[in-house]
Amino acid sequence: MRIDIVTLFPEMFAGALDASIIGRARTSGALTIALHNPRDYTRDRHRVVDDYPFGGGPGMVMKPEPIFECVDAVRAMAEPAGRVVLLTPQGRTLDHGVVAELADAERLIIICGHYEGVDERVREHLADDEISIGDYVLSGGEPAAIVVVDAVARHQPGVLGSQESLAEESHAAGLLEYPQYTRPAAYRGMAVPEPLLSGHHARIARWRRRQSIERTARRRPDMIARASLTAAEQRLAAAAAPGAPPDDRAHLARVALPVHDIDAATVYYAALLGDAGERVAPGEHAFRCGGATLACVATDGDARRPAEVCFAVPDLRAAHERAKAAGSAWVEGRPRRRANGERAFGLRDPSGNRLCFIDEATLAP
Ligand code: ADE
Q1: Ligand 1 pocket residue status of 145, Cβ below 6 Å
Q2: Rounded to the nearest whole angstrom, what is the distance from the C-alpha of residue 349 to the centroid of ligand 1?
Q3: 215 and 79, same structural domain?
């Protein structure tokens, strides 16, 4: 990709375009950047680029001729002609979608405005697009151009390593990133959250997803409203939203149904529910049914194996206290971690039905 930057202050870009990811992208050839000064396209002795506004008012306005002539010359320097982007606080606001759109272009010509603004004819007859990096006014478009170039460079093939692109994807998914930690595991009494040290990949992924959802719900309700979430995740987001009343109710998470032949059951339920489901373990096939899961579990020859209804709860200890007070018969008296990483306890109701309560933070996907 080629980016031409039209700026009255090329010196402002020194360093910013040479280091880190942009520098790497330029060295690798994934990105070509050229700076052009409209002052070099003036024809008068004083190389004047601004003038008083017609009709009066404060400040100066960038004259049209140096910008038009500069862009004409820049266009002729390479193929294709490129998309002309004017940086201005009046433009559409830069976000992930706009960055992806700009990054798709083979060539961008970015004009940095200055002073009180640019002559309106530049906006109307030269710019293809107008972009703002936020609702505040900078003294010029140069810092905005660095922001645009950085964000666009990250989208060029081969520019990011696989670890960096992961973070990119998490924003593309419409959620803020989860908290990151590195060594030491404890510093000045501040400990790294236990799931990250567990070495259990599924648990870590669950913890990160939950953190992303809760953080986005707290900080960016606008993003969470557009994010693609399961019913359980929507409940999580609603509970984390500012001002949400604490929700400590149990939610139906899973019904485990014993089946004699897991393959035959998979075919039957897939046809019945109109969904292929997912083989989550050799003897278990899960079908998502709204916010809960129907899990067909092989009986392994045990004809008396009962069905089990599983609830997810935000506070497993409180659920355990309630179960004790209700007079339950224990299957697993104390909460413990199961093979699938869930922290849970099991019991029977007075009719002998099997129930299980799972800490919702550890709920298997
Ligand atoms: N020029 C001045 N302010 C700007 C902003 N917020 N975004 C883009 N260009 C600008």
Answers
A1: no
A2: 64
A3: no
| Ligand 1 probe mutation, 138, 146, 149, most atoms within 8 A of CB | 138
Domain membership flag for residue 179: no
**111 within ligand 1 shell (Cβ under 6 A):** no
Residue 230 placed within a domain: yes
Please tell me the residue having the least CA distance from ligand 1 atom 7. Answer: 132
Residue recorded with tokens 């869930």: 342
Same domain, 10 and 136: yes
Distances (CA, A) of 200 to 107, 118, 189, 351: 44, 56, 24, 37
What would the two tokens of residue 274 be?
A: 């109109």
Average pLDDT, the chain: 92
Ligand 1 center to residue 128 CA distance, Å?
Answer: 16
Centroid of ligand 1 to alpha carbon of 158 (angstroms): 29
In this structure, how many other beta carbons lie within 10 angstroms of the beta carbon of residue 42?
A: 17
Q: How far apart are CA 34 and CA 36, in angstroms?
A: 7
Identify the domain boundary among 119, 153, 187. 153
Residue nearest (by alpha carbon) to ligand 1 atom 6: 89
Using CA positions, which residue lies closest to atom 4 of ligand 1? 89
pLDDT tens sequence across 208-223:
999 999 999 999 999 9
Q: What is the pLDDT of residues 256-308, one digit of tens each?
A: 999 999 999 999 999 999 999 999 889 999 999 988 999 999 998 888 889 99
How distant, in Å, are the alpha carbons of 59, 131, 151 from that of 138? 15, 13, 18
Q: What confidence tier does 169 reach under pLDDT thresholds 50, 70, 90? A: low
Q: What is the domain count for the chain?
A: 3
> What are 182-197's pLDDT values in tens digits?
999 999 989 899 889 9
**Model confidence at 170: pLDDT above 80:** no
Whether 70 and 94 share a structural domain:
yes
Whether 136 and 266 map to the same domain: the answer is: no
| Helix, strand, coil fractions of the chain, as percent rounded to 5 | 35, 25, 40
Q: Is residue 184 part of a domain?
A: no
Q: Is the CB of 139 within 6 Å of ligand 1?
A: no
Domain region containing 37: 2-153
The yes-or-no verdict on residue 171 having pLDDT over 80 is no
- Compare 339 and 18 and report the one with higher pLDDT: 18
Q: Is 133 in the pocket of ligand 1 (CB under 6 A)?
A: yes
Domain co-membership, 259 together with 226: no
- Ligand 1 in contact with 296 (CB < 6 A)? no
Point out the domain boundary residue: 128, 153, 178.
153
Examine residue 186 and state whether it is found in any structural domain, yes or no.
no
